[in-house]
Amino acid sequence: MGVTLSRWTMSYFAAALLSLILGECLMTAGYGFPSAPIRAPQTLVLVHLIAIGWLSLLLCGALFQFVPVLIARPLHSNSLPLPTLVLLVAGLAALLSGFLQLSGTIDVGAWPFPLAAGLLASGFALVLYNLGRTLWQARPLPLPARFVAVALLCLAATVALGATFSLVFAGPVHSEALLAITAGGLPLHVLAGLGGWLTFAAMGVSYRLLAMFMLAPELEGARPRAVFWLGTGALAVVILGGVAQILRDVTILPALCVGALLGFAALALYGADIFYLYRARKRRIIELNSQMAALALISLAAAVALIVVLIATNRLSDQIGAVVFLAAFGWLTGLGLAKLYKIVAFLTWLECYGPVLGKTATPRVQDLVIEGRARPWFLLYFLSVWGATAALLFAHATAFRMANGVMLVATLAIAVQLLRTRLLSDLTAEVPLPDGAHRPHLLVSLPNST
Amino acid sequence: MPQTFVDLDVRPILRGGGEPFEKIMQTVDALAPDEGLRLYATFKPVPLFQVLGRKGFAHEAREIEGGDWEVLFRRAEAPVEGEASAAAEAPDTDDWPEPAQQMDNRDLEPPEPMVRILAALETMESGDVLQALLCREPMFLFPELAKRGHAWQGGFEPDGTTYKILVRVGEGQKPAA
């Protein structure tokens, strides 16, 4: 038994970071919301570049490496992730072409949406198959892995809804039911993707990663179980209940309200769990990744608080863009960048020095990074995200673009830190690689042959 | 290709006072060359380790919920996907000597426990046993132990939070007894 390096995870991370940087360039240039309407094709280009290109590729790459750690079983296939990545990137390109076509930027014929639906559905089906087979072997699943399993079901729902929209946009579908879902299903698509797939998986994995990196006790008790069941209930009510309501031609508002109540309860208990993890840690001085994860978690709490305030003041539908922005960039992207900072260093260290550990002097994982140099960029990133959120709330498009420019600079600087870590450029002393150690490739993790 | 496992749960037979041995052997005889057996039992089925060991199966036993046991029997000579990761045989530790060295790594941040274990093993004689306490299953350590030809046996203590691993230096490459 044991877990080896996931071969293509670094390629996923690289493709994901490129998507994030491209998305931030577009936002800085004033492309899409708030300069364009929130449902405009330009905004949809941005949203999918971030949701699929950045967040989903990041999460897939991370899950291929860490689901085996969660369940103590090897990944079903270490070679499938490459064709999966090709399908997802090609599908994303087709989808973005479809939106560019809708916006009138390009004119390439009717093929992009059906092609995007086919490629993305195939790519995500391979993700589901590979991780699903891996998880299936490990039943009964430990709690963090159950979060991932539910997140994968939500991914399936998100893709099914998205593929439906694509086929209807492209015109070949005339089913009344599918037309109704396309007309009313957008909130379900967004909630299943952002709340079910991305957030629920991040919550599950965060239980384990935070405990591991801060030497805190693993939580398996009643409260994390309640988080799991309330969250699963919320997602089921929203997605299944919502689709049922649409098909019965009645408003989905009751499903959204019940889902929100369950979801808020889950998030409140999750917050209490995470608070406990930080307080109960044995390690007093925590690494940068755990410090910055705290800022991401604060962003999640702020997004929830913002939703509550906006509902109370009846302004949620006007300000939904600000909520989604804060959730996507403060919470998910913030957590993603913070954990990447640790994961890239750890996997690189393991790949490079694993074969010679104990046989000769080797650097520590922390010798591969210079936290003091990365910290200001992370802080700048979070400050600019919060600033950009405020700019959206106050409908200040220019301030939003300026804040995005700062986000872009901070992200680029963090990406440079990750690159330097991967290339072993930040090793404090220029020590020659010991015999038997090998310099990792930028994009591929190769098993060490003996 | 990875080995796939056929599941066999003999706990109902055992709880009913029955004898599952024949059922187990039938299942084993019906396995395809690339299949292993995942057995669920109400106790650690030590006698079976010997019997199936002679049939060329290595085993890995771990305690699961409710004091039950899950044992993976895999064909010891079967190729394993990728590197020398999962194939290490989990040996019977009954004939192992007392640990020559013990370490408590529970309060160390990862990957320090792994570094210390590998460093200690380099200083030990072939056949010596190292005992280490950890606060989680060392998933990234196992492939490294396998590559270096060490044998190991590990599992969670009854408290559910301490993981105890025994590593015997340089024994993993010898054929299973």
From TrEMBL, chain A:
Record carries keyword Metal-binding: no
Annotated TM spans: 12-33, 45-72, 84-104, 110-131, 143-170, 190-215, 227-246, 252-272, 293-313, 319-338, 378-396
The entry's keywords: Membrane, Transmembrane, Transmembrane helix
Name of the molecule in the record: Transmembrane protein
From TrEMBL, chain B:
Ranges in coiled-coil conformation: none
InterPro entries: DUF2249, TusA-like_sf
Listed name of the protein: DUF2249 domain-containing protein
Region (Disordered): 80-111
One Pfam family matching this protein: DUF2249
Organism: Microbaculum marinum
Domain DUF2249: 8-75, 103-167
Superkingdom assignment: Bacteria
Signal peptide: none
Taxon lineage: Bacteria, Pseudomonadati, Pseudomonadota, Alphaproteobacteria, Hyphomicrobiales
